[in-house]
Design brief:
Pathway: Protein modification; lipoprotein biosynthesis (signal peptide cleavage)
Distance between the termini: 64 Å
Shape: globular
Strand order of the largest sheet: 1-2-3
Function: This protein specifically catalyzes the removal of signal peptides from prolipoproteins.
InterPro entries: Peptidase_A8 (IPR001872)
Enzyme class: hydrolase
Protein name: Lipoprotein signal peptidase
Length: 190
């Protein structure tokens, strides 16, 4: 949980600081060239989700993001794997970064527009939170595909070598058989 919260705090801090700088230093509609026209700083206010989808449902996106945050924190209580902590921390930090905008930017709480400012080629304008969320999600998919459990530090699914517990059934007693495989009577059956 400590690693998860530390990663989330770093992502959140980077996201908030870069958005504050973007709002102070950039003028909407006037891109600043970094590498020709391929990489620019371009200030955009996004009321929707990624790629400006669901622009009329800002309050729904806010509630969904809040649910994701609560789910990650709840899941973090059982978290043991440092790789899962890294991935979930990236997603948590990015979700919190965009939630800060949804709650505190205009036009108002639950309807705030997210500040986007990084533009690379034909890709839609984004912010620091966006690649953190995507990168964290990719990491979790890879961990899942390779069978890494979030609640076991070094164990893969299906390779649990845990000792038997008191709840486990006792092994069946062997049946006496003659060499041909037929059952032979013992003293209790005669």
């Amino acid at each position: 949980m400590r690693l998860l919260l530390s990663v989330a705090a770093v992502v959140l801090a980077l996201d908030v600081v870069t958005k504050v700088l973007a709002v102070r230093l950039l003028v909407p509609g006037q891109p600043v060239s970094i590498i020709g026209d391929t990489v620019t700083w371009t200030l955009v206010r996004n009321s929707g989700a990624a790629f400006s989808m669901a622009t009329g449902y800002t309050w729904v996106l806010t509630l969904v993001a809040a649910g994701v945050v609560v789910g990650i924190v709840w899941m973090g209580r059982r978290l043991v794997s440092p790789w899962w902590a890294l991935g979930l921390g990236m997603i948590l930090g990015g979700a919190l970064g965009n939630l800060v905008d949804r709650f505190f930017r205009s036009p108002g709480p639950l309807r705030g527009h997210v500040v986007d400012f990084l533009s690379i080629g034909w890709w839609p304008v984004f912010n620091v939170a966006d690649p953190a969320v995507v990168g964290g999600a990719i990491l979790l998919v890879v961990l899942s595909l390779f069978g890494f459990d979030f609640d076991a530090p070094d164990r893969h699914r299906g390779t649990d070598d845990a000792p038997a517990t008191a709840d486990a059934p006792a092994p069946a007693e062997p049946v006496d058989a003659d060499p041909a495989g037929r059952r032979t009577p013992d003293d209790s059956e005669t």
